Automatic annotation (TrEMBL):
SUPFAM superfamilies attached to this UniProt entry: TPR-like (SSF48452)
Family matches, as Pfam families: TPR_12
Name of the featured protein: TPR-like protein
Alphabetical UniProt keywords: Repeat, TPR repeat
PANTHER family: NEPHROCYSTIN-3, TETRATRICOPEPTIDE REPEAT PROTEIN (AFU_ORTHOLOGUE AFUA_6G03870)
Amino acid sequence: MSTQPEGLPLLSALCLLPSGAKIESLPEMIPSMERNVTATSLVLLRTGLAYQESGRIRILSPIRDFILAQYPPSERQLRDVGEFVMRLANRAHEYGDENSADMVQILTEEFANINAVLLHLWRTIPLVFTLDVCRMSSISLGHYAVATGYGDYGPLLRTSIATLRRWRGSGGSGSLTNSQDTDSVHRTRDEAKGIAQCLQMLGDILRKQSRLKEAAVIVTEARTAFEAIPDRLGAAHCAQSLAGILCRQYRYEEAAGLLTQARAAFEAIPDRFGATQCARDLGDVLRMQSRYDEAALLLTEARAAFDAMLHRLGAAQCLWGLGDILRMQCRFEEAAVRLTEARAAFDAISHRLGAAECLSGLGNILRSQSQYEEAAALLMEARAAFESIPYRFGAAQCAQDLGDVLCMLGRFEEAALVLTEAKAAFEAIPYRLGVAGCLSGLGNLLRSQLRYEEAVGLLMEARAAFEAIPDRFGAAQCARDLGGALRMQSRFEEAALVLTEAKAAFDAIPHRLGAAQCLWDLGTIFRTQSRYEEAVTLLTEARAVFDAIPGQSGAAMCIYALANILVDQSQYTEVSSMLQEAEEVFQHLGAKWELASCRQSLARLFVKQGQIPEARHMLYHAREIFEGMGLIPGWQSALQHWRSYTQTPRRRYFSVLSV
């Protein structure tokens, strides 16, 4: 080091960079040392003060802390490195544009360095750069952090706000800045605007972190500051941010009102991009209120506007919303196309959060189509993606959906663990809708384990939680599940009443699949009560709806139930072919419970026809599936399980198994 006078200055500069630097980029990064910087970096490597990893020269954390404290970079080195990282930060405005993939890769690689250098600059007194330059770069990188969910950007914004406030409090005395910033004494309006912009950005980041109460306080403060300046554009952006917070708090009407105000403000300015963002957000609010036709209209309008502006991120977000609407309308094939298209668009601009949302949506489509193994794989992948960002809200939602799928696969212990984890995560956020969903999932898990009393208690609690939010779809789904649990307790009148309410709720949303499932449940109750004519009418109506919704097991379930009614009435002619048709569908979809129940019914048919060896063979197959799902002994549990529709006395099965 003694032979290299630039060794310590370079070491000091590199200590600003927690992720190190590419050796070939050092001349551009520190132009004041351009001639000798490569040779000096090799000296640092030989002395062991630095090490090389993946083509980058790095300094160990303890050495960095010591050097920055004892031998901080000079103003010249700070200016060199600062200008370099600010050029990178200011590229964030390209995000979502046609050719932003390269920028995303660079900012992702250098995010920790940019964040660290900007933080150091804000803490350095006197400031090396003007307040405006620091603020603009900090806000630019903040937009990237909000859009991608990447990095912890809160400390930098809090530091910048504190420094800007100290500067205002000093009365422009110059104590916070060098002579280059003397003009800023007379720029009170810009100073107030800078603080407001940083406050709004901090609020947006807190919202992404699900810290909703803190976010609301800070964005409200920012909005008040913008209105006092006055700055219409900033105030409109704050109204839009507050609407996003209100949505997460289920205050949809208030959110829609704020977005309508913000949209009008953007149009009056005029700011076409802001107005389009508000149209997209209004579409999302309507989607969350199950007002699908209105939502689709707004999202289609917003997508066209984003396409015209060549803003790929906005267009991809609209595509995702349209795909989710189609999923909720049970138009699964169209939904899968939209979500696949949206995922490709997000991947093209390296938007990890959007791509993960699409994965989750595709997993839930497969779940609705009873393709549980494939659904579980996609949901696990999506959960891992959310956790890597990190985005705990998305990870918790995936865990909830995954728990429901694992329950359908009979992996009850795993399902209970995942749902409990998801519930704890939602409670910590807090997010009442997620908590209610997990309660519902745990209730259905207990129902699958034949623990009906406990299941009814949890499902009633979950239904009340959904109604309190209010969430119409969740409440309707919970009512349907509750009706199924009551049915298995032979509380038929209560079950029929709850299921009728659930069907009316699904019809009002509208949600065809949910309404058809309620018809199926009611038909099964009537069959249990030997009201065969009514049961056949309802099951036939349900089958017609299921037939119009491809890729799920509902139609096969109706065939299966209708076949069992024929067995009850000793009409065996068509039963075998009907059950075999249903069995093929269940086997193709990997629907284990349905498959085992179908084989159980085939065994019952064989018993009725005196074909005992065939009955025993089929019942053993059903037993293997049930036991593989954790119901031991499976063949006994199956007789009382909520998806077992056979009413033959158990002693008949005992005799079959003893042959």
